[in-house]
Amino acid sequence: MTFQEGGSFGGGRVRKGGGGKVAAGGGAIGILALVVYLFTGVDLSGVTGGAQQPTPETGETVGACTAEQANTDRECLYSATLDSLDTFWGATIPAAGGQFSIPEAVSFNAAVSTGCGNASSSTGPFYCPPDATIYVDVSFFDQLAQLGAEDGPLAEQYVIAHEYGHHIQQITGVMDQADRQGAGAESDSVRVELQADCYAGMWAGNAATTVDPDTGVTYLEPITTAQLQNALGAAEAVGDDNIQEQSGGGVNPDSWTHGSSEQRERWFTTGYEQGTLAACDTFATDQL
């Protein structure tokens, strides 16, 4: 989606961290700890030492951005999208009787140390529950096309909104309650990811009517058909079956941890069209 003319976004929301090689003391073991945590919920950072290493930061943050800059610069898009997500979820969760807190956010290059262990850019964007932080190397967005999706602002915003959805699951208890050690088309791991897709759809369906309290204008212009297709294409591209096919292997639903392309697209659409937390309860249905 395109940020509304007249909008502006204060700086400091996204910290800049990482760069160069993976931080010393973690290496490949630290990356393994992160992958294990993200896919199973088992925290190995205390064993590998990953959690004891602070996120390497440059001391800089993404500065204030205009709407025009947010529409052309990916780090500004990251920061501005978070601003919109903060406002949307900051109203939605308390209205549902929950307590809301905003996640931290880091933009990194090449490698970064996190509360889940060390990560490289090849990990892709992710949310780390122990430090309640979203980590994005914005160069990842260039890879969407390699997976068969057309890049575009809403496709990139979908990725950020999906990771923010994991933060919503963290503060509502879903992350702790779900059994994320399993795999398969009906597993809790898949249900967690599809719910985050649905939450991303909820945000997208409301973003064009969510008003920035600082400027009094809506964050984003109404979604066009082409932009919506880009977002759906991104959801489809990161489906387990598509990734398995792209890697040259056969499709194996028993190994899925994120859901099929069809599931991810459908649950994003559910959030977009129905726009309620109840509609996104992937744990209450047998029809994933």
UniProtKB/TrEMBL annotation:
Pfam families per the UniProt record, alphabetical: Zn_peptidase
Keywords: Membrane, Transmembrane, Transmembrane helix
Its membrane topology: Single-pass membrane protein
GO cellular component: membrane
SUPFAM superfamilies assigned to the protein according to its UniProt record, in alphabetical order: Metalloproteases ('zincins'), catalytic domain
PANTHER family, sorted: INNER MEMBRANE PROTEIN, PUTATIVE MEMBRANE PROTEIN YPFJ
The protein, known as: Neutral zinc metallopeptidase
Source organism phylogeny: Bacteria, Bacillati, Actinomycetota, Actinomycetes, Micrococcales
